[in-house]
Amino acid sequence: MTHLPERLLSGYRNFMSGRYSSESERYERLAREGQKPQTMVIACCDSRAAPETIFDAGPGELFVVRNVANLVPPYAPDSEFHGTSAALEFAVQALKVKHIVVMGHGRCGGISAALGGLSEPLSPGDFIGKWMSLVAPAAEAISSANLLTAAERQTAMERVSVRNQVDNLRSFPIIKEGEEKGEVTLHGAWFDISKGELWVMDPESGDFERPAI
Ligand SMILES: [Zn+2]
Which residues contact 208 (CB under 8 A, 6 or more apart)? Predict the structure, then answer.
């Protein structure tokens, strides 16, 4: 007797009769040969911004790590538990991914919290407060931009944060070295949930533009 929610079981039934049966050879080959994804995506946990859905990715294509507000904690080889850093290390050293994409998104709850939008659940003992303190300097600067509306500050912060997370990637020696050798390319992106628009960060200017598709 299973206790999984019925929605998950019905979804799994659809997966088996649909995608799995049409791609079973691919799944079998991936099981036999292992995964060789070319791209790693660092995305938010937000249920509305799933990279596999947005990029229409099949099995084996994307190596994804998701955390609250798609953050990259700076390189810190200490005794703490670094889940995102472990995923980065595996992606670059073992899988040798060619691209790392940090993807932010509109209406991000984590970013909203960093800007002071959600004060209630953020007591000092909660995890999210400490986690979002990674972006505190940017959040402070943007919070004081009084000429902007709350929505403008939110979007600005989401994009500034993506830029800063891409910079944080370079604090990892293996990533910095891989980028210098031309083995790995770093990207920033931002997905607007309401319109489905994808914006891509220009590597030179750091500005976000709509890609030609
Ligand atoms: Zn988010």
Answer: 159, 188, 190, 199, 200, 201, 202
